[in-house]
Amino acid sequence: MASHTKHIVLLVGSTGKTGSSIVRALAKLPEKYVIKALVRRSSMDKPIVQEFRNLGVEIVPGDLAGDTQESLETKLNNVDIVINATIPVEDGNQNKLFLAAKNASVKRVVPSDFGPSAPPGAMKYQDTKLKIRQFIIENEIPYTFIQAGWLTSLLFPQSHSVVGNSPMGKQFYGSGKVKTAYTALERVGEFVARIIGDPRTLNQTVQAYDGEATLEEVWTIASKVTGENFDDYTRLSAEDIESTLRDGPDFLTALLFEYNRSALIRGDNTVENAVSLGALDARVLYPDYVPLGLEEVAKQVYGKN
Ligand SMILES: NC(=O)c1ccc[n+]([C@@H]2O[C@H](COP(=O)([O-])OP(=O)(O)OC[C@H]3O[C@@H](n4cnc5c(N)ncnc54)[C@H](OP(=O)(O)O)[C@@H]3O)[C@@H](O)[C@H]2O)c1
Hints:
Elements: E1 7-12, H1 17-27, E2 33-39, H2 47-54, E3 58-61, H3 69-75, E4 81-84, H4 91-103, E5 108-110, H5 124-138, E6 144-147, E7 150-151, H6 152-155, E8 171-173, E9 180-183, H7 185-195, E10 204-207, E11 211-213, H8 215-226, E12 234-236, H9 238-246, H10 251-266, H11 271-276, E13 280-281, H12 282-285, H13 294-301
Parallel strand pairs: 1-2, 1-4, 2-3, 4-5, 6-10, 7-9, 8-12, 10-13
Antiparallel strand pairs: 9-11
NADP nicotinamide-adenine-dinucleotide phosphate is lined by residues 12-19, 38, 40, 43, 63-65, 85-88, 112-115, 148, 150-151, 154.
Pfam family, one: NmrA
Organism: Marasmius oreades
Protein name: NmrA-like domain-containing protein
C-alpha cells in the first residue's frame, strides 16, 4: 500500500444508482476512505454533485469516453482503488481505465459488475462483463469483482397506479419457484465499503446479497404490503421467453429476457452457484452484516414506511 493509512478511492459513475450508493457508504467511513469522483463536465451542475461535495468528495472532471489512457493515468496519480459503476456497454472504455490504473500503480480495480451471477454464455450482457474481468486478469491488474444479485427495486412488480408498462414491472417470469439472490440498492454501497478495504478479497470475486427468494415469494410480499392483487399481470412461461429471444427483440428486451431466463428459469443467480463458480460468500466474510428482509425492502419500494 501507499504510505498513507487511508485508502484513496476514485469512483467513475458516481452519480448513477450504484455509484451513488457506493459514495454514500464510503463517506460514512472517513477514517478509512478518501473519495474522489470522476464526473463529466455536462453533469457538474447536478444536485447530487453538490451533495458529494458536501460529503467531502473531491470532484475530478473527466469522461471515460473522452479521456485518453494517458489523461486517466494522470487523474489516477496516488489513487489506491478505482471503482467503475458506469454501464459497461463499451469494454474499450473500461480497458483503458484499467490499463491507466495499472500504469499509475493503483492497488485494486473494481470493474462495473454489481449484478447477478451467471456463467459464460448465459447472457450477452454478463459475457461483456466477464470479458472485462478476463482483460484485467490477463493484464495482471489487482482486482476485486463484486456481484450483488438482483436489485430488489427491480424484482418487485410495479403498483397498478404506476403509469406505463415497463417490461420488468408488470410481468411475471417462469414458474416463480426458482431462487434468486437479491440486494437492496442502499446496501450495495455498504458491501462495497467492506469489500474494497479487505485484504481477503484481493484478486477474488465476491457475492454480496441480502437474501434469496423466489419470484412467487416476492410477489406475495408485494401483495401483502400494497394490498394489491397482481393476478392480472402477464405471466410469461420459459417457452414464451425463448420464443421472444428467438424472434430477435430490441436490445433492451433481449437484455431483460436474457436476465430473466438466467436468474428465474435457469437458476444461475443463487449464492450456491456463485460460490461454485469461485466467488467468496460476503455473508460468510462479514457475519456481523445485518441483511435487509424482503418485507422491509417491499415497504421501501412501495413507500409504505
Ligand atoms: N444488480 C442489479 O440488478 C443491477 C441493476 C442495475 C444496474 N446494475 C449494474 O450496476 C452497474 C451500474 O449501473 P447503474 O444502473 O447504477 O448505472 P446508472 O444509474 O445508469 O449510472 C451510470 C453512471 O455512469 C456515468 N457515466 C456514463 N457515461 C460516462 C462517461 N463516459 N464517463 C464517466 N461517467 C459516465 C453516469 O454519469 P452522468 O451523471 O454523467 O450521466 C452515471 O454516473 C452496471 O454494471 C449495471 O449492470 C445491476
